[in-house]
Design a protein that fits this description.
Helix content is 64%, strand content 7%. The protein is α/β, with parallel strands linked by helices. A hairpin with a 2-residue loop joins strand 7 and strand 8. The mean pLDDT is 91.
């Protein structure tokens, strides 16, 4: 393995700190997922329960507990805040970038390719965005990446096979404790497919695989056995049937259930490197007709396995495909360095860079045009002008460098694309918060220390209101769509159920969407007074009181 560059590692760490950590405390936790994971960790700690995930005071089995343990650790270290909730996703994203760098060193035997691959991953829109959000997917992705990195470590250094296999299965076990059995299935299928491509199946005849499997069983399975012992068929039905098997045949988000959803996510998610990814795929398929290195087979195996596993399921979310992004970055990083090192391909590199900078300029124009469609959600034009001007300025600087023939520097300028995007989001913090989080709406509701009450909510922010207020909640605005995964929360889908809640408390607060607000007005006319306290983003905050003298 070639020597690593301390200087370039420092640059990568600096980029990761800037993109994954800065500004994380500015934004409240968003609905519905960030508050879901944080609420579960919070309730587990409140009940002194470390093995059974809880939400709304009841067990829930959507995910294994490792993410909740990390969240609780962060809350204990730095207090409960958006920054601490997002701390471990940011740290894991940084770890993922470092793993790609070292995997690139081992696989490519080229430090420049390793660095460019890590640079592409850290500055790609989707990976960087996921590094700033509380999801299981980043942690799950990095454990899979680390497992595959350990395999490559052992495969490329025969004397380290034992360490490679043991590390592989340990990280598979941690991935299984993060999101489920795919934590073993994805890395193992990738390895087997790669060895089949390379006709090296004999590599599996290694006694250390048995040791690794035993470690996997010791680390990963006790939690599953414990939960099954306590909850039996309830756990099996929710975790394995509802959250895994059912998603193969039924779409949770029907608008995403298209064959092109994941290909588009992969290409657009690597922005601003999207064009280079497409070119890298074309180049790889051309080379497959002749000869490719083992690392190419490995990356192709990785991409095929992740894509097929999630593509066949009808339930699709962009975050599911995140485990493929390290492989995409390695593929595109290798392509870029190969082209920069070959004078004959300088013209094609120049064209790709030119097209990428033109896209930035067009996006700058689209930002201004888009303001007129969403101006009622934006309080100031200044951030819009800043983002538009920044993207156009990057276009100008990039083209100036291309004219001077400074292609490598132009790549670094393109890598700056996310900086103005994230800065603009920070400048628009108030506008972003009211659209994606229940925090602002929750400030109108009596909080934890007040008299317990039931707050009426929409399906979209039931978790957020519970998280921010600590109050009991009941859904009145579910749009006739049940929760895909069962939630131990009341759904007031009839007038009688709504009236029962209103009769049991003198004052009722609600945070609902427009349809829920209209429905409450319709049902409460003549008996209750409905006051609109505020309208923040999509949320209507209401206060309902009985009209004196009316039954």
């Amino acid at each position: 393995m070639p020597l690593f560059s301390s200087k370039r590692i420092f640059i990568l760490l600096l980029i990761c700190s800037a993109l994954f950590l800065l500004g994380n405390n500015l934004f409240s936790l968003s609905d519905p997922d960030e508050v879901f994971y944080s609420l579960t960790a919070k309730e587990m700690a409140a009940h002194n329960e470390w093995l059974v995930p809880l939400i709304f005071g009841q067990p829930q089995f959507e995910k294994p507990p490792l993410t909740y343990w990390l969240l609780d650790t962060a809350f204990k270290m730095g207090g409960e805040s958006p920054f601490t909730a997002r701390l471990f996703p940011a740290l894991f994203a940084t770890l993922g970038v470092m793993a790609v760098y070292f995997l690139g060193l081992m696989g490519f035997q080229d430090e420049r390719k390793a660095f460019f691959s890590a640079l592409l991953l850290s500055t790609s829109a989707f990976f960087a965005g996921m590094g700033k959000t509380v999801f299981t997917d980043m942690i799950f992705t990095v454990f899979i990446l680390l497992a595959l990195t350990m395999f490559v470590f052992g495969f490329t250094q025969p004397k380290r096979q034992a360490m490679g296999w043991v590390g592989f299965f340990i990280f598979c076990a941690l991935a299984t404790l993060t999101k489920g059995p795919l934590g073993l299935a994805i890395p193992l299928m990738t390895v087997v497919l790669f060895l089949m491509y390379g006709r090296q199946m004999n590599y599996l005849k290694n006694e250390w695989i048995i040791v690794g499997l035993l470690l996997y069983v010791i680390i990963a399975l006790p939690w599953y056995e414990y939960i099954y012992t306590l909850y039996g068929k309830t756990f099996i039905h929710e975790f394995f049937y509802n959250d895994h098997w059912r998603r193969l045949f039924e779409a949770e988000h029907r608008g995403n259930d298209h064959w092109f959803f994941y290909p588009l996510t992969m290409v657009l998610g690597l922005f601003p490197w999207s064009l280079f990814l497409v070119a890298a795929f074309i180049d790889l398929f051309k080379r497959l007709k002749n000869w490719v290195a083992l690392i190419d087979y490995f990356l192709l195996s990785w991409i095929v396995v992740v894509f097929v596993v999630f593509q066949i399921a009808h339930s699709k979310l962009a975050s599911y495909i995140l485990p493929v992004f390290p492989a995409l970055a390695l593929l595109a990083g290798q392509f870029i360095v190969n082209r920069l090192s070959d004078v004959q391909h300088e013209k094609s590199v120049r064209k790709l860079l030119s097209a990428s900078f033109i896209i930035l300029a067009l996006l700058g124009i689209v930002v201004i045009a888009g303001y007129h469609f969403y101006q009622h959600y934006i309080s100031s034009m200044a951030p819009v002008y800043f983002l538009s001007g920044s993207l156009i300025a990057l276009y100008g600087v990039g083209f100036s460098l291309l004219l001077q023939g400074r292609l490598k520097v132009a790549f670094y300028v393109l890598a700056l694309t996310l900086c103005p995007v994230f800065l603009t989001a920070c400048l628009m913090q108030g506008d972003v918060d009211k659209l994606v989080s229940s925090y602002q709406a929750s400030q109108y509701i009596p909080q934890h220390t007040q008299k317990p009450m039931t707050v009426l909510t929409s399906k979209a922010n039931v978790r957020g209101i519970r998280y921010y207020t600590g109050q009991d909640v009941a859904v009145v605005d579910a749009n006739n769509q049940p929760f895909f995964s069962p939630h131990p929360v009341r759904v007031l889908d009839t007038t009688d159920k709504l009236m029962k809640v209103l009769r049991n408390q003198p004052v009722t607060y609600g945070v609902v969407r427009r349809s829920g607000y209209k429905n409450i007005l319709k049902n409460c006319t003549g008996h209750y007074q409905v006051n609109l306290l505020a309208n923040t983003g999509f949320d209507y905050i209401i206060k309902i009181e009985a009209i004196k003298g009316r039954p």
